């Protein structure tokens, strides 16, 4: 009869350190797998790493011959806890010394169970080979974003993951399967020095950056006219000391902030379009407040927007924060006449296809942060000339609790995007296939085997490599779509764009932020 030994996880864990490292992961924005693509309920890598370790390492009480007293067991348990505490921080994922120590402890427990001597502690290759041969496979039948298989691999274990959702499968492959397949390969891009050492998947990552930059350059040449820079003129600086240093300069636009509009229900205004705004605040940062000031002309039934960045009183700021919205739901007030605009009226206008949009502000990149500029007719006109060659025709789910837009006359996925956004997304998507052909040609020129096997066929040659680079470029474009929709809003305290899926729903957003897909910093 086999004696069932207790594992460390059954006795104790350094939960405080694990929880702290797991919480810290949410703030990591560079290099963390969660930034690859959106996935719900992603498990913290720190917790997965600690749990896998503690499930495989024996508790000292399982070996009374080696740890005969409670004190000896407590000392050994404390030592194992220190290994976990060192292992769970994100920076430890790049520290082979710490990971090597964790792998050795797993191998040592396996060797004890097998009645063998453990592999040499200081020989990382021997330890990994031992784990590959004797370590239990880690199986995750609902792997989602791949956190558990990834951490199993990091600890030197064989990992198997599956999922019914094709997005989860692709994300897991991109996280766990593709990088090891091309580990140690030099980049194939002709402008990169392929002779220097390329550890791990750094060569693949460099190619993704290079061909992604090529896509950006191509997109700029194709659709750059739809995303112009903005020139600061003397006329713009009236009452705006913050703009004076930029007179004559052309600034890169970060975003255009729009407000949806409906015809005023006030019959005296003869169906003049009025904005539906949840907040006129652009920046709530201390010492850098900025608001949109709406100037209404009741006689003409019109209004216009201008930006105010100084002399903003407390009451004026509080009023701007309320926008034209009243209470919960889609109840607003007419900006010109003050007439109430009910949710029923807004929905009726939407279902009749009469909800429009007006440019409310332009956000540009300054030397020390965001600059807010008045909207212009030219900026509006440029946005409206975009003519997408393709629109997604699928309908959104009919579920008002989670999908609000259909209730306001936006029933299709295409309705969630502006025409300019659809043009950009279509161009970037088309460029992925072109980038793949360039990678393939460069890989063949660099001497990579052109066996014709694709990535899906478990190939490792030029065709498979081109597929791999295209996969990551596709994931990047897909993630960009999360920030390039008409459901994105402006975060006034952080001065950035909120993504579409800020939660597991698609709400109706009344004042939305249209990002500039070409307003990014290039590598060179």
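^ Assign residues to that structure.
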């Amino acid at each position: 009869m086999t004696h069932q030994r207790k594992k460390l996880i059954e006795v104790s864990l350094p939960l405080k350190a694990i929880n702290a490292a797991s919480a810290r992961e949410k703030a990591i924005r560079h290099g963390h797998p969660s930034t690859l693509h959106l996935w719900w309920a992603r498990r913290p890598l720190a917790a997965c790493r600690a749990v896998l370790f503690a499930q495989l390492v024996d508790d000292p009480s399982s070996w009374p011959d080696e740890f005969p007293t409670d004190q000896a067991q407590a000392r050994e348990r404390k030592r194992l806890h220190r290994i976990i505490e060192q292992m769970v921080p994100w920076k430890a994922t790049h520290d082979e010394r710490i990971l090597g120590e964790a792998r050795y402890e797993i191998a040592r427990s396996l060797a004890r169970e097998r009645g063998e001597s453990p592999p040499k502690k200081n020989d990382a290759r021997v330890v990994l080979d031992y784990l590959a041969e004797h370590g239990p496979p880690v199986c995750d039948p609902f792997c989602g974003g791949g956190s558990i298989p990834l951490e199993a691999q990091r600890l030197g274990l064989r990992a198997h993951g599956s999922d019914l959702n094709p997005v989860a499968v692709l994300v897991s492959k991109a996280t766990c399967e593709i990088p090891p397949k091309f580990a140690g390969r030099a980049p194939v891009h002709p402008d990169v020095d392929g002779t220097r050492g390329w550890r791990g998947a750094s060569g693949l990552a460099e190619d993704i950056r290079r061909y992604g930059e090529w896509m950006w350059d191509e997109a700029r040449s194709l659709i750059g006219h739809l995303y112009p820079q903005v020139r600061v003129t003397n006329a713009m600086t009236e009452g705006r000391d913050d703009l004076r240093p930029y007179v004559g300069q052309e600034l890169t636009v970060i975003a255009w902030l729009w407000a949806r509009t409906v015809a005023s229900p006030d019959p005296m205004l003869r169906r003049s379009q009025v904005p539906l705004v949840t907040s006129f605040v652009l920046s709530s940062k201390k010492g850098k407040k900025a608001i949109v000031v709406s100037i209404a002309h009741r006689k003409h039934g019109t209004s216009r927007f201008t930006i105010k960045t100084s002399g903003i009183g407390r009451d004026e700021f509080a009023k701007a924060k309320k926008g034209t919205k009243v209470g919960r739901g889609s109840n607003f007030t007419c900006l010109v006449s003050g007439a109430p605009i009910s949710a029923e009226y807004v929905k009726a206008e939407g279902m009749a296809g009469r909800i429009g949009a007006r440019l409310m502000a332009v956000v540009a990149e300054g030397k020390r942060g965001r600059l807010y500029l008045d909207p212009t007719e030219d900026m509006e006109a440029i946005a409206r000339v975009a003519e997408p060659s393709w629109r997604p025709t699928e309908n959104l789910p009919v579920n008002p609790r989670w999908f609000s837009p259909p209730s306001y006359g936006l029933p299709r996925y295409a309705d969630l995007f502006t025409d300019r956004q659809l043009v950009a997304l279509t161009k970037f998507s088309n460029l992925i296939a072109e980038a793949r052909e360039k990678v393939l040609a460069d890989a063949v020129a660099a001497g990579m085997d052109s066996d014709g096997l694709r990535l899906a066929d478990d190939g490792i040659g030029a065709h498979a490599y081109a597929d791999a680079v295209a996969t990551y470029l596709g994931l990047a474009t897909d993630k960009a779509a999360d920030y390039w929709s008409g459901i994105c809003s402006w975060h006034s305290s952080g001065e950035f764009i909120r993504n579409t899926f800020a939660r597991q729903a698609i709400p109706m957003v009344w004042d939305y932020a249209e990002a500039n897909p070409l307003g990014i910093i290039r590598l060179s």
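The mean pLDDT is 92.
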